[in-house]
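step: validate -> pass
step: tokenize input -> pass
step: predict -> running
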Amino acid sequence: MDTSAFALESTSKLVDRFEKEVRRVSRVRTPDAMHDVRVATRRLHQSLEVFEDEFLAPGLKRLRETSKRILKAAGKVRNFDIAIALCTEAKQSPPEGTDEQRRKAADELVDLARAWKAVPIAAKPHKQAAKTIEVFAADILPAMASKFFRAGRKAQDHGAGSKSLHAFRLKSKRFRYTLELFAPLFAKGWQDRVEAVERIQHLLGEVSDCQASVEILKQDPAMVQFLDKRERENLKKFQKLWQKKIDKDGEKRGWMKYLRHPVPLEKESA
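step: predict -> pass
step: emit ->
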């Protein structure tokens, strides 16, 4: 399969999932709905970035812009959900007015979701034959893996508030979603690798959640202390996981070798 066909097929599925979550969040205001629409949007955005050269510009630009507004609004609600959940974990009450702030943020998201209109995407015509998806994957994935390891090594040497740690959290998220895009091209060992990146992403997400919640809960000294402790604990877990599992001797070489040899789709389906 050529890259253009693969890009259109896989991205169209992500558009469908995104639109499904947008319709859901227009009716349901639960934390799970807020989380799911954010994840669906991020997965779609990563596909649009990876396959940017395969789509016509007008539809691509409009889809990005409109979905980014939904992502931003959902992020505001999600921050309140995380802060409230952490208060529950710490057996503390959220500050007065938190529920009302959350409701207003959810209203803004629901308004955007109800106003959403489908945005068609179309493949860009190519004068020359497009690369096969296997060649395309072998070109981009090892480069992404190299950047992932380089950023991770830099991040694990710095504190929780460092720019390098924040940058690595975003890189790990994009790397994971890109790996998921190419799942049909890899067999044995793929799931373990995706799960390894997901564990990193989860721990760094826990650190980020504490940082975001401090802004909401900063008037509560007990919660600030709780969040600071939780942040440091998750940072240590990340550093241990990185050193002992992810970046142990030979691990990067193994990643690079693995990603340079995707399985041809025709051979896999034979």
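step: describe -> Residues 132-257 form a domain with the CHAD domain fold (CATH 1.40.20.10).
step: cleanup -> pass
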